[in-house]
Write a structure and sequence with these properties.
Helix content: 40-55%
Radius of gyration: 20 Å
Oligomer: single chain
Order of helices and strands: EEHEHEHHHHHHH
Distance between the termini: 35 Å
Strand content: 5-15%
Number of strands: 4
Number of helices: 9
Structural class: alpha/beta
């Protein structure tokens, strides 16, 4: 394995074979950045065909892309269960609100998240929190400008009530 300029791991043929032989299956290849010298068809020739929906990238496909372009491509492939992909995150967050002030703040923030095409990120964060709670993982109270987001507070990402402390969402979503 080696790391590219974007901080992503580039897997070679040996890495891919090791993952498959460890019993992780072909699904581990989805979204993986694979060195273009690897003949994936040969690596998995013992399998009749790739599963439908399998997505992997070769090193050459990555070259010449700007970071915003690469981010756009990566944001289309979130690795989370289908129930979270299908989740109406706006409805979920608004359902967590108990007062009109909370509804108004969350509604405003959700519009800002939607303008920035960040709903998939919110869905993934919901999934991440659920996994951490299920596995009894402890995480911090909150840090940086993210504590200005009341939506993230309602999702359980941090424990700082930004409405109570009158934190401005613009400090987070600049």
């Amino acid at each position: 394995m080696k790391q590219n300029n974007y901080g992503e791991m580039i897997f070679n043929e040996t890495d891919v074979c090791d993952l498959i032989m460890e019993g992780q299956g072909l699904q581990v290849l989805s979204g993986m950045l694979v060195d273009n010298t690897v003949d994936l068809e040969k690596v998995v020739e013992f399998v009749d065909s790739f599963p439908t929906g399998l997505v992997y990238y070769t090193f050459d496909e990555k070259m010449g892309r700007s970071i915003p372009d690469w981010d756009t491509v990566k944001q289309q492939h979130w690795h989370m269960p289908q129930e979270y992909v299908d989740l109406d995150i706006a409805e979920h967050v608004l359902g967590l609100c108990t007062t009109d002030a909370e509804l108004q703040r969350c509604g405003h923030e959700l519009l800002l998240y939607q303008e920035r095409n960040l709903f998939n990120l919110l869905k993934y964060l919901k999934y991440l929190v659920d996994v951490m709670v299920e596995n009894r993982v402890i995480w911090g109270v909150g840090r940086g400008s993210s504590v200005a987001s009341y939506v993230l507070y309602k999702l359980g990402i941090h424990r700082v009530d930004s409405m109570f402390y009158e934190l401005d969402i613009d400090e987070f979503l600049r």
